[in-house]
Amino acid sequence: MASIQRLKTISEFHRTRGLTPPEHPLISIVNYAEVQMLPEYNNCQWVFDFYFISLKKNIAGKIRYGQQSYDFDEGVMFFIAPGQVFGLERPTEAPSNKSGWMLLIHPDFFWNTSLAKEIKKYEYFGYAIHEALFVSKKEEDTMMGIIKTIEQEYHSNIDKFSQRIIISQIETLLNYSERFYNRQFITRQRAGHQLLDKLEELFVAYFKDTEPSNGLPTVQYFADRLNVSPKYLSNMLKALTGQTAQQLIHEQLIELAKQKLSITNLTVSEIAYELGFEHSQSFSKLFKSKTNLSPLEFRKSFHPN
Predict the structure, then answer these.
(1) Number of CB atoms found within 10 A of residue 213's CB
(2) CB-based contacts of 283-288 (< 8 A; 24+ apart in sequence)
(3) Contact in structure between 26 and 67 (CB atoms under 8 Å)
(4) Taking every annotated instance into account, which residue ranges of this chain make up the domain HTH araC/xylS-type (predicted)?
C-alpha cells in the first residue's frame, strides 16, 4: 500500500519536487516542466494543507473520466482542496515535452477576503482526480492569461492592492473553470447518458439483490459503483436531466412505490420497509411531497372500490 505524505506548506511542495524555494510563503506558481519528483516520493499518495490548481499537458499515461479513459494529449486541469487524499500513477520515464503550470494557495492567503468562504461554493474541488477538466487550446490561453497576471503581481513589489488584485484574478480563474466544466458536461453527453443508463441498472439491481434492512440507496452507493465522486455524479446528472442524483433516486423510489401500491396488496408499512425506509411516516411524507397524494389515496385511485 502506498504511503501517504502530508505537505503542510508550499515550501515543502517545492522541496519534494526539486524546485527552488517559493518567493511567497502563501502563494506560488510552478512551471510544470521544471518539476522533478524526487525518487523517494514516486509511489506516494498525497495530502496538501493548501489549494492546488493545475493545468498540465503531455503527461504520460491515461486518466479516467467518468466511465471512459482519455489520453493526456490535451490540457487537463485538476482542482484539489486542503485535506484531500489523492495519487497519480506515474511511468518510470517522465515525458520530455511535459508543460503547464501549478497554482498553490494556502488558505491563509484568503484571510479577510471574499474567497475565504466563497471558495467552498466551487464544487469541482470535490471531484476525484479521474474527473479532471479537459480544456481546449482557447480555454488554455484564457487560463494562462490569468496565471501570468497573478505571477506578475506577486513578483512585483507587494503593496496594499496586491492581495486584492490577486484574489480577483483567482476568483476569475475559478469562475471560468466552472463554465468550462459545464461545457464539458454538455459536450460529453454520450458518456453522460451512459452514466444515466448505468445508474438505472444499478437502481433496479439494488432492490433485486439487497435486503430491505440495508436501507435506502444513497448517492455515495451509486457513485462508488460508477467510479465517480458523489458531487460529480450530481452535477453531471443536473446538467443532463435538471435533477441532482438525490432527486433522481427519490424519483425512482416513488415510481417503484407506485408499482407496489397499484399491483400488490402490501400495506404501506410493508412497502416502506421493502424500499428501505426505517419509518413508514418518512415514506408517506416523501410520497405525498412528490405526488400530492398519500400512498393510500394513490392506491384508492387504482382501486376505487
Answers:
(1) 8
(2) 283/257, 286/250, 286/253, 286/254, 287/254, 287/257
(3) no
(4) 201-301
Q: Which pLDDT band, with edges at 50, 70 and 90, does 207 fall under? A: confident
Kindly state the average pLDDT of the residues 44-73. 69
In angstroms, rounded to a whole number, what is the distance separating the alpha carbons of residues 179 and 77?
13
What angle is formed at CA 159 by the lines to CA 156 and CA 162, rounded to 5 degrees?
70
Asked if 262 and 158 touch (Cβ cutoff 8 Å), the reply is no
Contacts of 111 (CB under 8 A, 6+ apart): none
What percent of the chain shows pLDDT beyond 70?
Answer: 85
Q: pTM of the prediction?
A: 0.77
What SS3 state is found at 191?
helix
CB 31 within 8 A of CB 148: no
Mean pLDDT value of segment 52-77:
64
pLDDT (tens digit per residue) in 155-178 = 876 777 888 899 999 999 999 999
Taking residues 244-253, report their average pLDDT: 92
Within the chain, residue ranges assigned H as helices are 10-16, 115-118, 137-155, 162-187, 189-209, 219-226, 230-241, 245-263, 268-274, 280-291, 295-302
Measured distance CA(277)–CA(260) in Å, rounded: 15
Q: Is 221 helix (H, G, I), strand (E, B) or coil?
A: helix
| Residue positions counted in the chain | 305
CA 295 – CA 285 distance, rounded (Å): 9
